[in-house]
Amino acid sequence: MASKGVLFRNAFCPNSMCSPCRASMLTGLMPSQHGVHTWLDDYIMDTWPEGFSAIAEFETLPEKLAKKGYHTALIGKYHLGFADEPQNGFKHWVAMEKGTMESFYDVPMIDNGQRHTAPEHSVDYFTRKSLDYLDKHASPNEPPFFLCLTYPAPYANVPDPDHRYSHLYADLPMNSVPREGLSPELIDWILLCKEKYPDEDFAWYKRLAEQPNDLPAMRRFYAQVSMVDDGVGQVLAKLQEKGVLENTLVIYTADHGKSNGQHGFWGHGEDTWPSNMLHSANSIPLLISYPGFAQSSLEVDNLVGTTDLFATILDLADCELESPEPIFGQSFGPMLRGETTEFRDEVFMEQEETRAIRTSEWLFMKRLENTKYGFKDELYDLVNDPDERVNLAQDPNYAEVVAKLTSRVEEFFTKYTNPRWDLWKGGTVKSNSTRPFLWEEVWGEDWTPEF
Asked: Cα dihedral sign for 149, 257, 347, 339?
């Protein structure tokens, strides 16, 4: 795709977890606007209202496209509520019953209202279902389509049997994976979870600590990437076969990043105490193949974000970017068309107790104040310290930089929040938080998630 399209080198998600980023991609909103601040916990589904969708009150991307005559489909992972029936403007619906998973095989699925178990690897299953969908809807004589194919892979710590790509990694030492040991922030999070949740299964957090020495898990993770690569290739080949590839906008991206040993972190950005928004946690791949783009094999260094994808798709589909909530996203459609355009030099991110701004020069993480944990802000000089190693936030020589970036973070989150979901000002979250103890300590024992 990169050889025939546009590769974005600096794409970032607004949160380090799956559900918030999926909500942002479909609504164009930040977590503090739509209310999803972490993964929706499938293990408490019995507490959700009937038919619950975390973004039901918003006009979503597929709903807007449907108004333009697009046939809309979701095939893959939903993880924004119940998957029993189509949600949020999708007409065709093939989804995992739950957002979380313990295996890629024998996964409970819902195929347009019909429940069954998919025996094959779920990546292959969703590829097959996508090819079937394209056979029916990808035609110059059919209405335009919007297919949201959301593979559940790669997914860490899934102890499945080998598959057809496992042999590629079977004997590799995985030397490209950093081995820095465990960071104090990761250890603090593991110990804190053990203290705060003594009655819960500790296995997940225990695995975080074991990952630096778990070669089989690393190999399985990278083999999953090859499975996804295979699936994407099949989809592109099908579009070519159907004669619509040159007239189809194809976007390859991910919901969030993941730390694989960088800085001694393993897992999501929320798997440290406090949460982090370093490059590995929030960077995402972004490749776009666009019919008639100005230049093939184009690489773009501009900072772009998930909410920009929302704006860009609507722009290229000739839909209005209208919402009762303010939308930060900016279309990079002009960039793809080769037009001269000014694009901002900043993206914003949030993970419960941490809010951040990234520019071409700085990464600044602002932490919630006045807690018993004494969180410290973080500032990194991305020009001279691109690996984000030296925290300058407490250095008096950088007080002016900290003050300016603090002001920008505060200004942004004053505009792009809904008071109901603004955790920093007494708001709450939808469904669940991974830090409920923190918010109970800050806002009182009556603090509780809502729907």
From this structure: negative
**Considering the entire predicted model, what is its pTM?**
0.96
44 is a domain residue: yes
Looking at residue 378, its pLDDT comes to 99
Q: Which segments of the chain have a pLDDT < 70?
A: 294-296
Q: Looking at residue 294, what is its pLDDT?
A: 59
Q: What is the domain-level CATH number for residue 87?
A: 3.40.720.10
Q: What angle do CA 282, 287, 289 make, to 5 degrees?
A: 155
Per-residue burial over 266-283, b if 16 or more Cβ lie within 10 Å, else e, is bbbbbbbbbbbbbbbbbb
- CB burial of 196-218 (b: ≥16 within 10 Å; e: otherwise) equals eeeeeeeeebeebeebbebeebb
Joined tokens for residue 169 = 């990694």
Consecutive H or E run containing 21: helix 18-27
Strands 354-358 and 347-351: antiparallel
80 DSSP assignment: S
Count of domains for the chain? 1
What is the pLDDT, as a whole number, of residue 295?
65
What is d(CA 336, CA 405) in angstroms, rounded to the nearest whole number?
A: 30
Taking only Cα atoms into account, the Rg of the chain, rounded to an integer number of angstroms, comes to 21
